[in-house]
Specification:
With 66 residues, the chain is α+β, with helices and mostly antiparallel strands. It contains 2 helices and 5 strands, in the order ββββααβ. Strands 1-2-3-4-5 form a 5-stranded antiparallel sheet, covered by helices on one side.
Length: 66
Amino acid sequence: MHRQYVSSSRISSVGCESDILEVEFKDGAIYQYHGVSEGEYRSFMKSGSLGSALSRLDKMHPYNRV
């Protein structure tokens, strides 16, 4: 999956494909969040704080480390 670099204290890069949001953290860990709609992805990317927005998403969507 192609990820784009983001400006965040916790997150290095983010990508979204086929309802899967993929997040690479600064420590190198990569997680995939399942069932994330295109609208949720756009809202996430526009968020003032990606870390806070991700905390909300991980309560609503199953995720796993890859």
